[in-house]
Amino acid sequence: MQINFAKMSGAGNDFIVIDTMQQPVNLTEPQILSLCTRRTGIGADGLILVESSETLDFSMRYYNADGKPGSMCGNGGRCAAYFAYTTGISGKTASFQANGDHYNAWITDIECVKLKMTVPDDFRSNFYANGFSCHFVNTGSPHTIIYTEELDTFNVENAGSAIRNNSTLFPEGTNVNFLEVTGPDTLSVRTFERGVEAETLACGTGAVAAALMSYKLEKVSSTSIRVTVRSGDTLHVDFSDDMKEVFLSGPAKVVYTGTVNV
Ligand SMILES: N[C@@H](CCC[C@H](N)C(=O)O)C(=O)O
């Protein structure tokens, strides 16, 4: 089977995006894993199917790099909206469905997308996991938060993998974010992603979790936070004081388009 795809990057979180409205696609878990594997496949943190929707512009189905269905991907949602805009599926404003939720996105500039997130839930603060003081929030995906003062040299792979696989505390697993507070409205974040099982260069729902938790814990004092991610890009998280309105903005681009044999 030949599949047309776009390789996209959302602040360094990279995705294979496939329009299933143009071509019928039925990929198995091993096929998605193989496509997402670096060096031997296209290589990506996840794969996104842009599917038809009866009521909205499109529906987004997200798979992690391990080939398994993922929870909400903030950068993936921003990339899907930019893909839909560049292919004419939607205009500068897009509405789509993902994981049973309704999302709105706006193309705010060339290769810049703002996404309205769902209302966060399941806030948990101050518990210990694998020797680390942790916090947790679900922003569409489950996120553990750990503060450090030495983010650049921190061993994200070791600590991230241990906490991600702590099945006593996280039966469904968790993404793990390591944060350094760099100012009253700025954070630096590195994320170990569930389903990639490695550090990625950015995580959208992770950046949102980092900003909201840091505001709740009074580690930042603004409701407009700039989050520097591992790629060096900046994600913006803006939210209302009650956290019922939450927006994630940042870069999203098509790196190349191609055809792959599966
Ligand atoms: N990179 C994503 C999060 C993707 C989902 C996640 N890995 C999971 O299923 O836990 C983002 O930008 O939010």
UniProtKB/TrEMBL annotation:
InterPro entries: DAP_epimerase_DapF. Its EC number is 5.1.1.7. Pathway: Amino-acid biosynthesis; L-lysine biosynthesis via DAP pathway; DL-2,6-diaminopimelate from LL-2,6-diaminopimelate: step 1/1. Substrate binds at N13, N64, G74, N75, N175, E193, R194, G204, T205. It comes from the Bacteria. It is an enzyme of class 5 (isomerase). Keywords: Amino-acid biosynthesis, Cytoplasm, Isomerase, Lysine biosynthesis. One of its GO terms (molecular function) is diaminopimelate epimerase activity. One of its GO terms (biological process) is lysine biosynthetic process via diaminopimelate. GO terms for cellular component: cytosol. The keyword Transferase does not apply. It catalyses: (2S,6S)-2,6-diaminopimelate = meso-2,6-diaminopimelate. It is found in: Cytoplasm. Catalyzes the stereoinversion of LL-2,6-diaminopimelate (L,L-DAP) to meso-diaminopimelate (meso-DAP), a precursor of L-lysine and an essential component of the bacterial peptidoglycan. This is Diaminopimelate epimerase. It comes from Prosthecochloris marina. The gene is dapF.
